[in-house]
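3.2 Worked example (two chains)
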Amino acid sequence: MFVSPGNDVALAFITLFSLGFYGWPEKAEPGGETQTMNNKNEKGESQGRRTSTEFDWGSFAIRLVATLVLVLLTYNPSGWSYAHWLQNSFSNDGLGPAHFVVGVIVLIGWVILLTATQRSMGTFGLILEALLFGGIVWMLIDFGILSINSVTAFTWVILVILSVMLAIGLSWSHVWRRLTGQFEVDDD
């Protein structure tokens, strides 16, 4: 039986990931009006809340936390990850249905993240993003802020950078719309 922080991490990932894509749920007010994230009630009166199409640092933070959870749930150097759990199961009690279900959840998360990132940024955008973050890491190493002597510490840095890159990819359509006023529409 799977008894480790993975169960809690998987549940947190699903919750945060769904909030990142769908926003906070609607809530019914006592007068029968439904307040949504669109900043107006059914009568068109402003409620002082942000809109679901409005993108801000909080929206980015939710996406960043969701990507961090997925990346670190998949693998991290601490030994508490899906990859370590699988590796330990091969040598101990074998694989079971919990391994399969959690593996499918992790795979779904990766497919969603990679597809959304690829569609919003494109291959050239991903290459530029990787070059930018590679250059930042190189600069931090050159200035002596980051050390590559510890493989574990450097692995953590790479995993966090991967999470940031994926969060930017999830957010890029919103940023692009803000910068240019153009919506991205996928014809597929």
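3.2.1 Second chain
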Amino acid sequence: MLTALLFRFPFPGPWGKELAEAVHDLARDIANESGLVWKVWLENRETGHAGGIYLFEDAAAAERYREKHERRLSAMGFTAVTANSFAVNTELSVLTMAGAALGQTHASNSASAAAVPS
């Protein structure tokens, strides 16, 4: 079952393009992670937080990565890291247009309307 993993932690920067340049090698390493479908990088300059939303093929791959990344962030000096796993409800996600990201096709409007209670 597809599993989403959400990381969040205090982060002083850099942000944007500077961050992309600074962690380019890390991003390549993450891209090669076994079981990873995709990652979305998150940053909030106003609150001083960064993180990511990851989609994994299954819970075991997500858990392996969670353990690895928590160790890596700790070694980099980051504290107050939160990591939460979630099972993905594929049926509802397709209805809310996440189908392409999940490798599914979008349901037709009539099928969507019939499936949603009024």
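3.3 Remarks
The first helix runs from residue 16 to 22.
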